[in-house]
Design goal:
- This protein is α+β, with helices and mostly antiparallel strands and 740 residues long.
- Helices cover 17% and strands 33% of the residues.
- Strands 8, 9, 11, 16, 17, 18, 24 and 25 form an eight-stranded antiparallel beta sheet that branches. It has a seven-stranded antiparallel beta sheet with strand order 7-10-23-12-13-14-15, with no helix packed on it. A six-stranded antiparallel beta sheet has the order 1-2-3-4-5-6.
- α8 (452-462) packs across α10.
- The radius of gyration is 29 Å and the shape is globular.
């Protein structure tokens, strides 16, 4: 049983919950109490009454695929739910006491459905023996740390029910296309944010100058933006025919409430715009990953809006967001300046929004995003009192002159401080963790796991053939769906949440991207590593050991693929679909491509599922799973069982294939990156023990601290002769600062 905070963005609230994990994979969530948000207002859709009702229980069970047909749409459309995430689904229902149905006067029943996606757990980790189990046969199969097995969050998608009619959504809900030029249509994402710091990226695929709006807004609920006149707000269908909230327009301007201001840089088709939302300080910033005069530009555009907060106030106690007295609504945006939040303010969530104006405009929200819950007010107060306690101890040491009398119990170092200091010392001594700022900016700094196992698991998630370890230097030829004209160099930092982070260390362009945000840590996705998108240029620390390929990147069916689109499948030379990718030929309808000729499966930067196949009459290249845009008709379908020889395309005669071996290989494929990382680490450990030359250590130079008692003893005696503790620490800190 674990405690946590469950956020409800639609209600602007956070609830303390108790989570009980069952052995069959089910999860029971019990809502205990309201942590933040309005207690007595706005809960009608949830409980049928204005007030929050504690004690609700939701039991969620894993949703498992029962047949090939049930997962085919996910694989063809490019959704990653089958490979990376496990979906839990549950609901609860109850009758409302004080409300009646308007139609027949009967009692109302409120049903609430919850869907949660969580990363699939490694079979090796979940079956790992404990130290007390006595089973040492598999101890080397579980090197993956707790930080590594924490899966990356599922990608942000757009809300199918909350967008203007002039905007169409792709089947995976990640791509928006403007289909008519009627006003300025707006679309909302499916995830809202109440607290913390959050960063996500949007790729502009096709757009005219000034026709794309990227930002955040509150969801409108009143009749002012509705197309109907029902007295019941929940029945009003929102038109969303104007740009709402605060955002950046792709002609070097910010936009809110009809007002524009010069900001940032021009963005064109192919560029990627990052958005940082800091709900705690009320700031919105933007980041540009694009091309300018043929050079790759990475630029932190700086703060675009201040004093924006879903709570109606910022750290200074005033702001321009929220829903309450004195705090302007965040739907249309906010006027400049600050406004006191008088009276009761009902917290509201801010949602990522996209606005499109011209027909043909198209954007895709990337799966590269990161989030931090931030520091709550209680933690801030606790930190302040803790610092005050340490400063008081220093003051007592100074006045009491404890240089000679170290045994005075009235002026001892706080025990909690010793414990935390020892934990930090152990973290530093392990040489496993690396701290760095990220592209998300202030508030999203991260600690990366530099262990070989964690890096190998992150590389497996990308579909790499070898493991790249912390400190390796690689050349970079791809970025955000582009093939770079000038190769860049990057250093591998480590892994976090299953992602492989890097830092650019060299650009051959004349721009200052490395000093303007480009030198911050960021991570790759699977579309950026194909065709030597990243290539090792230094002596690899992974000893050249092959990394197993997980099931996600292989053909998902035993029988291969069948071309079903009437015009056939266009074979292109590159994973991305752009002017630089060459059209190799067309594979006719009805052709079946054997599984052994389906070489690879990947999702490109626009969220399109692509297969690299070998087709002898034409050659080797990439085909799409579906048509892009419109009804997104399927181009290929999965073949459940191997077909007869007459239906299969010709294969290389020099290759002998055993169907039974293929089926065995299919059934024994590696599912999770953690499994692949564990298998790789076994081989890595064996090779390292053989190849590694034993280092010679001089006796008596072991400076490690064994336990917390020894650490406390050293801490109490760490003063220079004749100086107080405060003076000694000041000299030590000054020397350490000069050295670093």
């Amino acid at each position: 049983i674990h405690d946590g905070v469950l956020e409800w963005p639609d209600f602007g609230a956070g609830i303390r919950v108790e989570c009980c994990f069952h052995c069959d994979g089910a999860l029971a969530i019990t809502e205990k109490e309201l942590v933040f948000g309005s207690r007595d207002n706005g809960w009608e859709p949830r409980f049928g009454q204005p007030s929050f009702v504690p004690g609700s229980v939701m039991i969620l069970s894993p949703v498992k695929a029962t047949s090939l047909a049930s997962v085919e749409d996910d694989y063809i459309s490019g959704e990653d739910s089958q490979e990376n995430y496990e979906v839990l689904l549950g609901c609860n229902s109850f009758k409302v006491k004080n409300l009646r149905n308007r139609g027949d006067g009967g009692k109302l029943r409120v049903t609430c459905e919850m869907r949660i996606s969580r990363g699939k757990r490694s079979s090796l980790v979940s079956n790992a023996p404990t130290e007390s189990s006595g089973n040492s046969d598999r101890k080397n199969l579980t090197p993956v740390t707790s930080n590594s097995i924490v899966s990356a969050p599922p990608p942000i998608t757009f809300d199918r029910d909350f967008h203007n009619s002039s905007i169409s959504l792709s089947q995976d809900c990640r791509t928006l296309t403007c289909v008519s030029s009627e006003g300025r249509g707006t679309a909302f994402a499916s995830a809202g944010f109440i607290k913390g710091v959050h960063y996500w990226e949007v790729k502009i695929e096709q757009a005219d100058v000034g026709s794309v709006f990227i930002g955040v807004a509150e969801k409108p609920t009143g009749a002012s933006t509705s197309s109907s006149t029902s007295p019941f707000p929940h029945e009003n269908q929102q038109r969303l025919n104007r740009w709402l909230g605060w955002g950046f327009v792709n002609f070097r301007a910010t936009y809110t409430s009809g007002a524009e201001r010069v900001y940032g840089a021009h963005c064109h088709s192919g560029d990627t715009v990052g958005v940082q939302l800091n709900c705690d300080t009320g700031r919105i910033s933007f980041f540009l990953d694009g091309m300018k005069y043929g050079e790759h530009i990475l630029n932190d555009l700086g703060c675009a809006f201040e004093n924006v907060s879903p709570f109606g106030f910022n750290a200074d106690g005033c702001g321009s967001g929220g829903f309450g007295q004195g705090a302007p609504s965040g739907i249309d945006g906010g006027r400049g300046g600050r406004y006191p939040a008088n009276g009761v303010v009902r917290p509201r969530a801010l949602w990522p929004v996209i606005g499109l104006r011209n027909s043909g405009d198209r954007v895709t929200i990337s799966d590269k995003w990161t989030s931090s819950y931030g520091v709550d007010a209680v933690s801030v107060v606790n930190n302040i009192t803790s610092v005050d306690e340490i400063m008081c101890w220093y003051s007592d040491c100074e006045t009491s002159n404890l240089v000679k009398n170290r045994g005075d119990t009235k002026n001892t170092i706080p025990r909690w401080f010793i414990k935390e200091s020892f934990m930090e010392y152990q973290r530093w001594q392990s040489e496993k963790w690396l701290h760095s700022s990220t592209r998300g900016g202030k508030g999203l700094d991260a600690y990366f796991d530099t262990s070989p196992a964690a890096c190998a698991s992150a590389c497996s998630r990308l579909g790499l053939k070898i493991a790249l370890l912390s400190g390796d230097i690689v050349s970079v030829r791809r970025s955000a769906g582009r093939v770079l004209e000038l190769t860049e160099e990057a250093m591998i930092l480590g892994a976090m949440h299953g992602r492989l982070y890097y830092r650019l260390i060299s650009q051959k362009s004349e721009g200052g991207s490395l000093t303007e945000g480009g030198g911050r840590a960021w991570f790759w996705d699977e579309s950026e590593v194909v065709d030597d998108g990243i290539k090792l240029i230094s002596k690899g620390r992974g000893l050249g050991i092959d990394l197993p390929l997980i099931k996600k990147f292989r053909c998902p069916s035993k029988g291969g693929l069948r071309i079903v689109y009437a015009s056939g499948a266009v074979l292109r030379s590159d994973l991305e679909i752009f002017d630089g990718s060459m059209n190799i030929g067309t594979i006719p309808q009805g052709t079946i491509i054997e599984r052994r000729n389906v070489l690879e499966r990947r999702i490109n930067s626009c969220g399109v599922c692509r297969y690299r196949i070998k087709y002898e009459p034409v050659g080797e290249g990439w085909i799409s799973g579906r048509i892009r845009g419109g009804k997104e008709e399927a181009i290929v379908e999965l073949v459940e069982s191997p077909s007869s020889a007459s239906d299969v395309v010709p294969a290389d005669e020099s290759i002998e294939v055993n169907a039974n071996c293929d089926e065995d290989e299919f059934d024994n494929e590696i599912i999770t990156p953690e499994d692949a990382g564990s298998i790789w680490y076994e081989n890595y450990s064996s090779r390292k023990r053989i190849d590694e030359v034993e280092e010679l250590y001089t006796p008596g130079l072991d400076l490690s601290v064994k336990d917390i008692n020894e650490f406390e003893t050293l801490l109490r005696s760490s003063t220079f002769p004749g100086l107080t503790t405060l003076d000694s620490d000041c000299i030590f800190v000054s020397a350490l600062s000069d050295i670093s």
